[in-house]
């Protein structure tokens, strides 16, 4: 019978056997899958697992530092790389969603490849691929599409020539969470909502600038913290805020304002393929809206997205 504990025991033994004294490099995203894969590999090979966590400047507020801290706390051999400016430079002037995704994918590959080269004599690339990623190549927006388009222009980066080890590729998402729990991973990491690889860049419609990222991070933190304190966060499949490229008139004291709009999104879903918008309580929405408008400079209006997928998508880009 499959149990998380038996899975952990047999995989650690199998990974030890397969990897011996080889070194493995693995990119952590802060998400559930890469975290569980890393901890499993860490149990099998310890310091020979070299984790890389890239700050692309597109994560949620304070997320880079808090995730890095909790990985270090778990004893992982991890290197944090501040690449914010490289991502912002690559995004400057881009407005097309697919061009933005490609730019982010390209810079990620460059940064990761540089870091992987620093790990002497590395033999393997560890990945948090899970079973649904294996059976269907997720979505055309996914990282594999980015890697293919990169491949067409410049050939494979060196880390992609490594042998691949994917300890979770037989598991479904709920099983990954159970394995993570059996491994003692921080419940805050295991219960985290899905978050897209291109991060806040696809929640800022149009051109991404560091200023817009900062505004969105503030608004989004107010939103997510309120979902948590209202006990709603764990009941929602995914929630996030979107920075709309629209200005509207408002009034603050005696002053007329002309500022941007934040849209709040929360959906229920089983797998992200279809989704219904969540009927969040009006008093909660009211509290969040007031807090955002009163505290986030540059925002004078908040709206709530009441579209389901299909025909809308979860993300706006
Ligand atoms: P959509 O917007 O297509 O999103 O309804 C479905 C799920 O996929 C996530 N998503 C992405 N994840 N890279 C990712 O890693 C992407 O480019 C990307 N686009 C969408 C989205 O957050 C949702 O969970």
Ligands (ions, cofactors included): xanthosine-5'-monophosphate
* Helix content bin: 40-55%
Strand content: 15-25%
Average pLDDT metric:
93
Distinct helical segment count: 11
Q: Helices and strands, in N-to-C order?
A: HEHEHEHHEHHEHHHEEEHE
Tell me the CATH superfamily of the largest domain.
Answer: HUPs
User: How many strands, what sense, and barrel or not for the largest sheet?
Assistant: 5 strands, parallel
What Rg is obtained from the alpha carbons, in whole angstroms?
A: 20 Å
Protein name: GMP synthase [glutamine-hydrolyzing]
EC number: 6.3.5.2
Subunit structure: Homodimer.
GO molecular function: ATP binding; GMP synthase activity
Structural account:
With 317 residues, this protein is of the alpha/beta class. The protein is 43% helix and 20% strand. It contains eleven helices and nine strands. It has a five-stranded parallel beta sheet, with helices on both faces. Strands 6, 7, 8 and 9 form a four-stranded mixed beta sheet that branches. The model is unreliable at 138-153 (pLDDT under 50). It binds xanthosine-5'-monophosphate. Residues 101, 139, 141-142, 194, 196-198, 238, 272, 309, 313-315 line the site of xanthosine-5'-monophosphate (XMP).
Key phrases:
317 residues, alpha/beta, Rossmann fold, GMP Synthetase, Chain A, domain 3, 2 domains, five-stranded parallel sheet, four-stranded mixed sheet, 11 helices, 9 strands, 43% helix, globular, binds xanthosine-5'-monophosphate
């Amino acid at each position: 019978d499959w149990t998380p504990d038996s899975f952990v025991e047999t995989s650690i033994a199998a990974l030890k056997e397969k990897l011996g004294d080889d070194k493995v490099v693995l990119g952590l995203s802060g998400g559930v899958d890469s975290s569980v894969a890393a901890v499993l590999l860490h149990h099998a090979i310890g310091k020979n697992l070299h984790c890389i966590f890239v700050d692309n400047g597109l994560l949620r507020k304070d997320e880079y530092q808090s995730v890095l801290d909790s990985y270090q706390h778990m004893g992982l051999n991890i290197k944090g790389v501040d690449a914010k400016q490289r991502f912002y430079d690559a995004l400057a002037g881009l407005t097309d969603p697919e061009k933005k995704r490609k730019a982010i994918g390209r810079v990620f590959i460059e940064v990761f490849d540089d870091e992987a080269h620093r790990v002497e004599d590395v033999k393997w690339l560890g990945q948090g691929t899970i079973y649904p990623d294996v059976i269907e190549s997720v979505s055309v927006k996914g990282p594999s599409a980015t890697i293919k388009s990169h491949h067409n222009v410049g050939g494979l980066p060196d880390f992609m020539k490594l042998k691949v080890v994917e300890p979770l590729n037989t598991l479904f998402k709920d099983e990954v969470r159970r394995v993570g729990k059996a491994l003692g991973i921080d419940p805050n990491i295991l219960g985290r909502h899905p978050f897209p690889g291109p991060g806040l860049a696809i929640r800022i419609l149009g051109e991404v600038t560091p200023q817009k990222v900062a505004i969105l991070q503030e608004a989004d933190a107010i939103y997510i913290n309120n979902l948590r304190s209202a006990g709603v966060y764990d009941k929602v499949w995914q929630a996030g805020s979107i920075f709309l490229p629209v200005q509207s008139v408002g009034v603050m004291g005696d002053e007329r304002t002309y500022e941007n709009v934040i849209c709040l999104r929360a959906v229920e879903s089983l797998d992200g393929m279809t989704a219904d918008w969540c009927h969040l309580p009006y008093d909660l929405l009211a509290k969040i809206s007031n807090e955002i408008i009163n505290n986030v400079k540059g925002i004078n209006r908040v709206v709530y997205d009441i579209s389901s997928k299909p025909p809308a998508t979860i993300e706006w880009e």
